[in-house]
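Here comes just one.
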Amino acid sequence: MNKKSQALIIGTVLIVILAVAWFLFFNKPTETLNKQTVNENIKLTGETKEFEITAKQWEFNPSAIEVNKGDLVKLHIESVDVTHGFALPEFGISKTLTKGTDIHVEFIADKEGVFNFFCNIPCGQGHGGMNGQLIVK
């Protein structure tokens, strides 16, 4: 293979890599609405409910949150001691909470029920009991 062909192949590979990087960087899915809201265009029918949640070994405070179906839920979650996780699978939420960083999560409570949230990053002896509930009426 001659040098011109090699340069053409290398240039093409670099363009493809740059295009993929550009796509991944600028086409991140929104973290402010859950997947069902984006995919099904579910409309906000309720109020906006905001909650500040503290994560610490081995609890979330508050451990229960109550909203109405159709409410826009805004969570401000902060770990005050070590790295924890916050998972609410039914609404497509899985976040890492590093100590001292306030994580913002927004979603529409588009289904009724009691949904468990929990720490999904091992954080010590009491990790298994670090959970709470989202109650959607």
Remarks:
- The longest strand covers residues 48-56.
